[in-house]
Structure to design on (615 residues):
């Protein structure tokens, strides 16, 4: 067989373009479904792991999937908002801890996640550099966001305006980077975390400006009464929170009415979870409580249903490719008819031709196999990043 | 060396019939076979080599009745005892000169490719004047060099019989004479028998014997 392999090797080397085309066909048709399988498995693992680690999510009524995509993966679509009071209500039940989330704004295309420090403990997020959020106007970056934005603690990041053409809208806020999180291979890697209050300042519910009550500059005052001062548009609103101006920041309205996008509820036990879900089902409130694992599980089932269709298509294409390859070998045999006749005349046994052809097929399959394994190893190595790139980003 | 008795051959679906009542060639004899196209010269070579088998009669080569051997034994006998030189050289373009010379050793278990065989291949190539071209692809060789490579391939297993089917047919006059010289030298050196089909009447004088093949033609099967 070694002589057959040698002759096949020389033949393959001489007809390298034909060989490479065959190898490419075989490799592609093998690698495509396997790569899809690896990526879908990784997707399932990542999405279900994040969903499984999040016991309950409370959000506005509507699409539970949209709520999950926003709450778990910080997707672009903002679900209907709920009030901060919903989070307080969960605390008051004594059945669960509540972590409010406000995912609405973005900073250079990365989601700004307004939350509390409890979120970092809940997700087990450690710091690669810097420290946790301490004062208003600070942000903490996910590992990948920090890498791509090339930011480190001490640098600053400006929130993106909600609407570029709304001149009277919210001013962008320049946030100071307090820390960078360790890589978790989850949506947290791409997030910009801020305190809830900072998120509300970005929305314009809180702001800071010069003290018109005490300042001697009367040019900014339109009207002054005992309990109210009305300033004109020349009053400077701060777009960065510093030690010097932090005390001037204040909020208008009742905090319990401030918006949040969801609440992660952490029941103390299974019984508490059941009771909490029951209360939400019985109540007439517009909020909904969902089990992320169930919602994402259903999504994955749909994805795998689509994958089954893709698999069927790939099987058909694969069969067509196998037939085409068989045809190529048959035509190759016809092209080599003179060579075959010559070696028959020289005196080789009939089986030798079969050996030569088998050796050629083995070498091409082996090379394609090596290529497949190499590609799959690379895909497997980068599957976490690839999945995030495709599904999370 | 070659003994053909009462040979009667018909192609399965053909109209051609070859009958040879008695034909002998002695050891180390150099015999030329001439005759018009379609007279059965190549068929005779195929019968002697055991590529085809006669319906009646026997073909003996080196005291072995080739026509009665089983297919696999006939093939083993052919590759070890008979050297073939073809008009179109029949070299493999994906192999270099050395690998073409060694090719019979790679397609059968009857021949063992050893270090001494490789050395012998180098010596043969030296004799043929192609030693410096052993690593060249055959596509880069001249016609004469290709035929020398083909002769080396035929002679390497040290066969007792060389069958040359219009071996000089594709060569220019200078090369014809030179290749024939080399072929004769090697055949003499190996004490082999040469049976060459040729259309070239200028070369006939150099053979020990010339057989006009017209005499064997059996006619057309009705």
């Amino acid at each position: 067989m070694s002589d057959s392999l040698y002759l096949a090797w020389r033949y393959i080397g001489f007809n390298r373009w034909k060989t490479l085309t065959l190898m490419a066909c075989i490799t592609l048709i093998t690698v495509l479904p396997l790569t899809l399988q690896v990526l879908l498995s990784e997707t399932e693992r990542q999405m279900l792991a994040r969903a499984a680690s999040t016991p309950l999510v409370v959000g506005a009524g509507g699409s539970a999937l949209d709520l999950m995509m926003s709450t778990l993966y910080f997707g672009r679509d903002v679900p209907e908002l709920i009030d901060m009071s919903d989070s307080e209500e969960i605390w008051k039940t004594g059945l669960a801890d509540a972590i409010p989330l406000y995912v609405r704004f973005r900073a250079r295309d990365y989601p700004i996640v307004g939350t509390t420090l409890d979120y970092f403990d809940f997700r087990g997020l450690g710091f690669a550099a810097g420290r946790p959020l301490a004062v208003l106007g600070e942000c903490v970056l996910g590992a990948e966001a920090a890498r791509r934005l090339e930011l480190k603690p001490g640098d600053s990041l400006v929130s993106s305006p909600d609407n570029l053409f709304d001149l009277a809208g919210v001013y962008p806020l320049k946030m100071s980077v307090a820390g960078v999180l360790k890589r978790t291979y989850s949506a947290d890697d791409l997030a910009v975390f801020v305190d809830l209050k900072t998120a509300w300042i970005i929305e314009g519910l809180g702001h800071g400006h010069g003290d018109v009550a005490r300042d001697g500059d009367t040019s900014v005052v339109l009207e002054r009464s005992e309990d109210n001062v009305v300033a004109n548009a020349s009053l400077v609103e701060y777009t960065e929170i510093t030690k010097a101006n932090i005390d001037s920041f204040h909020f208008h309205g009742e905090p319990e009415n401030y918006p949040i996008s969801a609440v992660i509820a952490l029941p103390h036990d299974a019984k508490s979870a059941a009771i909490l879900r029951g209360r939400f089902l019985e109540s007439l409130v517009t909020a909904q409580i969902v089990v992320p694992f169930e919602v994402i599980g259903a999504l994955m089932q749909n994805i795998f249903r689509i994958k089954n269709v893709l698999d069927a298509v790939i099987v058909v294409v694969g069969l067509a490719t196998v037939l085409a390859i068989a045809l190529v070998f048959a035509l190759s045999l016809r092209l080599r008819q003179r060579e075959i006749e010559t070696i028959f005349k020289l005196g080789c046994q009939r089986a030798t031709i079969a050996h030569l052809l088998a050796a050629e097929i083995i070498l091409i399959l082996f090379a394609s196999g090596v290529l497949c394994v190499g590609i799959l190893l690379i895909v497997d190595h980068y599957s976490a990043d690839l999945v995030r790139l495709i599904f999370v980003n | 060396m070659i003994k053909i008795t009462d040979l009667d051959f018909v192609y399965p679906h053909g109209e051609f019939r070859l009958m040879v009542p008695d034909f002998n060639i002695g050891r180390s004899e150099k015999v030329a076979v001439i005759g018009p196209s379609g007279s059965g010269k190549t068929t005779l070579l195929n019968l002697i080599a055991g590529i085809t088998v006669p319906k009646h009669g026997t073909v003996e080569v080196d005291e072995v009745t080739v026509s009665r051997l089983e297919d696999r034994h006939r093939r083993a006998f052919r590759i070890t005892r008979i050297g073939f030189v073809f008009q179109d050289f029949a070299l493999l373009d994906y192999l270099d000169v050395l690998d073409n010379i060694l090719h019979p050793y790679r397609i059968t278990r009857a021949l063992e490719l050893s270090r001494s065989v490789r050395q012998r291949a180098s010596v043969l190539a030296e004799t043929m004047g192609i030693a410096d071209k052993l690593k060249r692809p055959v596509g880069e060789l001249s016609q004469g060099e290709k035929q020398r490579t083909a002769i080396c391939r035929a002679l390497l297993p040290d066969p007792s019989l060389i069958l040359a089917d219009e071996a000089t047919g594709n060569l220019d006059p200078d090369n014809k004479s030179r290749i024939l010289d080399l072929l004769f030298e090697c055949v003499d050196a190996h004490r082999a028998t040469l049976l060459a089909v040729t259309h070239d009447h200028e070369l006939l004088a150099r053979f020990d014997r010339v057989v006009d093949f017209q005499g064997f033609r059996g006619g057309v099967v009705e």
In short: The CA atoms of residues 76 and 110 of chain B lie 6 Å apart. Helices of chain B lie at 41-49, 71-81, 97-106, 115-128, 143-155, 173-189. Residues 2-220 of chain B form a domain with the Rossmann fold fold (CATH 3.40.50.300).
